[in-house]
Every structure is written in C-alpha cells, then in structure tokens.
C-alpha cells in the first residue's frame, strides 16, 4: 500500500527548499508542491509534504533551532549517548531505581550510569583574615572527608549491584558509577545537557512525605528543566517488568506536542501491547474537545498497532481528585506526561503538569520533553 503524504507546512519557496534539505538530511522523504498548481514556476506559497509516518520526527526537526546543522539536530532529538542516568543516595529506594533502570537498559540495549551527588556545607566567610585562612584549611579537609565517604559508599553500593546481578535479580548489563560534588539537581541537569542520556530514572518519596518537602524535591526540580525523558517511581514501588506499568494514562495537551510525546513513549515501550487512556488537560481546548480527542485517538490507533487507545474526558478539574479516580477506577499503573519547557518565572507562577502530578500521585510517572 502506497504511503500517504500529508502537508507539514506551507512556506515561501526559499524557506520550503531549506526545510526540505533539513528533513532529507534526517532521512525523511519530502515532496514540494506549489499552492497554485496551475502555475509551474516557483510560487510564493509552497507545500512541504511528507509521509504521514514521519510526522512526529518531522515536527521535532521543525521545532529545532533552524541554525543548527542536521547532525546537531539529530543529536539533540535522538540522544546519541546510549546511557540511562540513575541518581542515587544509597538508600533502599535507590535499589528500586536501579532495578527499574536495569530493566530499561536490558530491553533498550543501554548502559546505566549510577550517579551520587554530595554537597559540601556552606561556611560564612565574614571572619578575620586569620580565621578565614583557618576556615579554608578546615573546608578543604571537610570536602576531602565527604568525597572519600561518598566514594566508599559508592563502592559498597556497586558491590550490592554486582551481587544482585550474580543471583539473577538484575539482568547482566554493563554499568558505570560516578561521584560528583554540588547541588544534586544542578549536577543532574548539567549531566543531561552535556551528555544527554536516553532516560533518567529517579525515585520519589510517598505523597505524604512529598507534602512536607515541596520546596526541596530534587526530582521536581529536575522535571521542571530536564529536556530528556524522566521516569520516576515511588520509594516503595516494586517494579515487575514493563507489562506491570499498564494500563497507563497519557495526559494530552490536545496539540501537536501530543504526537511528539506519544512517539517517544512508544519507542520506550514498543514491544508491550497495552491499554492507554487519553486524558485532556488543556483547558483551552475549546468546545470541540470531543472531536479533537477522537481524531487524536484515531491517529494513534492507526499508527501504533497493538495498543488500545481510549479517550476519556474528566468530570473534575481538580488534579488530586482526577488522580485518585483514574488510579482507583481504571487500576492505572503509570502516568505519562508531555513536559513543556518553561522559563523559571513561568515555572514559579504556573508549574507544569509533571511538577503537579509528582506531588499528587503515588504511581510511576514518565515525563516526556516536548
């Protein structure tokens, strides 16, 4: 059956040619078509047409910085580093994060990077010259002691992981460890920018504990600014394979970002046929919400065989009530959230849905950057 071509954009001739070149360099077939088909010469309006199956990838390229070269765009979008980052604090919940990360690594042929971040205490420098000199020496000694202790803990943690691999609890995948100094959220985000992994796996506290630690949640800070997928699991969650994460809920913005996020989601779980509930959270969707959601469901169903997509319009706009109803009524095991990039001021005034969900639900969550 011939591939169906759809119109990605309509631009001036020069811009359409430039966009075609970027798409072709990324492996996408492109057809250019004049808006005025009766005029064979280059027209002011030119349709850029692509195969329907290439739409999610093409949308990412269109949204990427036009000044970047094709190889840079692909690196930004595909995550060329075959890593899974797993921040740990050596607690029992860290072992849960490791178990989950190793399952992903085994299925996706990736390498886990186990990271621990320690912070040195801050000292007030408003002392005399002599006192400052003494303080610098003490500060250096404290930092060295903390660094040595962190490396010792990581060594013990590594042995624990090797023992779990040895008894068959963990799959036999190669992994590495690293110890770094700084604020955990800053170090994690710096790593994802300089060495973008395919996935970050983090453990979160229970909802009751989160309520008292909203301002200090490392996971929430990472979610707000991370531009790679982040998978979070509650501290007392026992991971039993990918199938145990379904049925799941996919929160829809009811715009093109849903196509990007769903494509990322399916690539992570491409071998797991399952039920996915589509729930709109965009209050600006308007009166045609039902029609738009059904069109989105049909697009997903046609493109991703083996998955059962179900649209559901929530009766309540209260997030906590919505989370409770979804998890209880449909036995939901995972929440999937398209995570839009926001500047720091927007995040303070109106936090993203991923930030809100993490404090309202005790369930695994996958935040996907769009």
Describe the protein in words.
With 370 residues, the chain is an alpha/beta fold. It has 13 helices and 13 strands. It has helices at 13-25, 55-63, 70-78, 92-108, 129-166, 184-194, 207-210, 218-225, 257-268, 289-303, 319-330, 344-349, 353-358, and strands spanning 5-11, 31-34, 46-51, 83-87, 111-118, 176-181, 199-204, 230-234, 248-252, 275-280, 308-311, 334-339, 365-369. Strand 9 (248-252), helix 9 (257-268) and strand 10 form a beta-alpha-beta unit. Helix 6 (184-194) packs parallel to helix 8 (218-225).
Tell me briefly what this model is:
It contains 13 helices and 13 strands. It is of the alpha/beta class. β5, α5 and β6 (176-181) form a beta-alpha-beta unit.
Task: Provide the descriptors you would attach to this structure in a database record.
370 residues; 3-stranded antiparallel beta sheet; alpha/beta; single chain; 10-stranded mixed beta sheet
The sequence of SSEs as H and E is: EHEEHHEHEHEHEHHEEHEHEHEHHE
Computed over alpha carbons, the radius of gyration is: 24 Å
| Number of helices in the DSSP assignment | 13
- The shape is globular
Distance between the termini: 31 Å
- Kindly state the mean pLDDT as a whole number? 78
- Structural class by secondary-structure content: alpha/beta
The residue fraction in helices comes out at: 40-55%
Major sheet summary line: 10 strands, mixed
The low-confidence runs, each spanning 5 or more residues with pLDDT under 50, are 65-80, 123-135, 209-216
Strand order of the largest sheet: 6-5-4-7-8-13-12-9-10-11
The proportion of residues in beta strands is 15-25%
Number of beta strands: 13
